[in-house]
Task: inverse folding
């Protein structure tokens, strides 16, 4: 018998996250190991009266194509996929890779071209109801340093929760952010300030991301000044970038350094003009995620962390930065980190001041 | 190491069958077990400079959706898929099912509704370069009564052949068909005649189907008269229909009977008006296919067989019959079968008269 949590997960994705209704055309992107979840999603979508189409997003196939194709081919936005996405109502991406390192031997400039070609698709997706979620696989468990059973429990522990209750907690922080001009973050090798004046804080209570559990916005593009050290590793198409130091001057990255994967970091920041500016400041609020799992979907929501992303900003938040990339970088705040809103402390010594 | 025949197969599909060229958008439909072939197709398409998008056509997902959905939902042609197909240049369907009986417990009327909803898509696909091929799986080997290794040898034996040489042999028959008005077929419990006057014979030398190996056309819609017995079983969405007897009067099926699966046969013929008329008369010419494998892609090409399909006709052949189905039925001719073109024997005693 299948794990009953798979069907429960599907019901949350379809109903809570994507609000699928009769007549909706639902597009699902998955790799093969996600099929048990996709099957339950198909059943729930069918019950509601929606249609479903499944794109196989198998990295080994993409790798074969990208390796064989010339740069001129990789760099082209696939028109049929674009038309397809324009025509659908809901997009659900199921992360279920069988090898997180499958793209690790593709030359970085090819990955960059490929990512850039996909850029226009994200602008269309942003206008739809969409969700990214994860189905546990051995490869993802391995990256998290866990057995498949323990990782599966970890995933469902963070996913099958009372999203309304978490939303109420996040609303407290979001209300404060809405009234804030200047954010200052201090911590290990970190002293940075930026402005969020007039920008909208957004709560992810399991809608766009499942699990959700963060409050985020897009900072003013020219406002970041100072230095920040991200202690959590970034996984980018199978490459690890670790120990990133960024220095900002008037919103622009003027210096970068990584303890591991400096070349990949340079390539990312060189993608385009917007890749050197912030697209996001996020604060993790999901204390159900107690451990780092080397998976951004979970890591950026982890309680007692903040993250910033270079690259594309959120229009819904008022962000204006444009880029073909959006790379989240995470910093643990529990040990010595502090957040100030307009010079008032909001987070200090591992707690929000109202906790 | 992968079986080198997989890459050879992919090269034939991409180059010989579909003539993929730089800039083409290639859509591949596959289930998970087809991925080794799809990976090689992706590589070859990339090398040529085409783009590739892969739809996961996993029957267990389709089953879950169809079982849960109401008839009104199943009966709707999926618009996003339609738009997608309109936008592509080449469609490749890889048959690689993991269970040929996966759809066997769906009520027949739901299968009929679902097939009918797909009808409009075939009209669009017919305008494209397209190919159906097969990647060997344990389930398909099982249906053929073979080990996976023996079935794999069987598949590549019929597929990786000199298609130009086979084309020359088929041209002899096609030339005769082009000059023929009346076709008469006799054999076990069979005495039927029909007209192909003015219709175009078509040679499949591995283009639309891989393997190919048949010469076929669409008979005049009102011309079939008599009775025919198809001794080879039909597999239709995991249901077996066996020992079909059809009686035609002026092109219309007036009586049908099956030794096994009569209810499914009735449902198929009841799909629509065109489902009771012939859409195809085909003559199998691929003597590399020496055994019946319960797979229509191979069986209809088998040497010493003929087949007829009820349902949708081939416009390219001049056929006018319209239907949401196209169901091939096969008859062995080696034992006592004979084919006459305008009352001259062309096939008799297991041989074409010019052999």
Result:
């Amino acid at each position: 018998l299948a794990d009953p949590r798979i069907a429960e997960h599907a019901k949350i994705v379809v109903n809570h996250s994507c609000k699928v209704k009769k007549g909706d055309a639902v597009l699902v992107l998955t790799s093969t190991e996600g099929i048990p979840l996709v099957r339950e999603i198909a059943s729930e979508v069918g019950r509601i009266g929606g249609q479903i189409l499944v794109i196989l997003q198998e990295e080994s196939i993409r790798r074969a194509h990208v390796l064989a194709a010339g740069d001129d081919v990789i760099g082209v936005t696939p028109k049929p996929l674009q038309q397809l996405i324009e025509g659908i109502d809901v997009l659900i991406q199921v992360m279920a890779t069988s090898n997180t390192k499958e793209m690790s031997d593709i030359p970085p400039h090819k990955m960059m071209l490929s990512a850039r070609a996909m850029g226009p698709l994200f602008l269309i997706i942003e206008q739809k109801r969409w969700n990214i979620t994860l189905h546990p696989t051995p490869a993802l468990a391995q990256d998290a340093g866990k057995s498949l059973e323990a990782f599966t429990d970890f995933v469902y522990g963070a996913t099958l929760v009372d999203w309304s209750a978490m939303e109420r907690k996040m609303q407290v922080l979001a209300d404060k952010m809405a009234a804030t001009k200047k954010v200052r973050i201090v911590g290990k090798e970190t002293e940075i300030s930026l402005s969020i004046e007039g920008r909208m804080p957004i709560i992810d209570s399991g809608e766009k991301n499942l699990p959700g559990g963060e409050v985020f916005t897009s900072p003013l593009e020219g406002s970041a000044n100072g230095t920040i050290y991200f202690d959590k590793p970034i996984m980018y198409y199978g490459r690890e970038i670790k120990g990133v130091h960024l220095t900002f001057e008037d919103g622009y990255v003027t210096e970068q350094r990584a303890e591991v994967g400096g070349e990949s970091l340079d390539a990312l920041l060189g993608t385009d003009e917007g890749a050197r500016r912030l697209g996001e400041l996020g604060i993790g609020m999901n204390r159900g995620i107690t451990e780092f799992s080397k998976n951004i979907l979970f890591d950026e929501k982890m309680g007692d962390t903040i993250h910033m992303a270079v690259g594309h900003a959120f229009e819904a938040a008022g962000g204006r930065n444009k880029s073909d990339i959006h790379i989240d970088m995470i910093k643990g705040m529990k040990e010595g980190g502090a957040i100030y809103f307009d010079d008032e402390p909001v987070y200090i010594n591992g707690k929000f001041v109202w906790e």
